[in-house]
Amino acid sequence: MDIPRPLSLSVDIEHWPIAGAFSISRGAKTEAVVVVAAVSDGRHKGRGECVPYARYDENVTGVAQAIEAMREPLRQGLDRAGLQRAMPPGAARNALDCALWDLEAKRAGRPAHALAGLGPPRPLTTAYTISLGTPEAMADAARSAAKRKLLKIKLGGDGDPERIRAVRAAAPESELIVDVNEAWSPANLAQNLAACAAAGVTLVEQPLPAGRDDALAGIARPIAVCADESVHDRGSLASLAGRYDAVNIKLDKAGGLTEALAMAGEAQRLGFDIMVGCMVATSLSMAPAMLLAQQARVVDLDGALLLAKDRPDGLRYDGSLVHPPTPALWG
Question: At CB < 8 A and 24+ separation, what contacts does 60-67 make?
Answer without folding.
Answer: 60/13, 60/33, 60/35, 63/35, 63/90, 63/91, 63/92, 63/95, 64/11, 64/13, 64/35, 64/92, 66/90, 66/92, 67/9, 67/11, 67/35, 67/37, 67/92, 67/95, 67/96
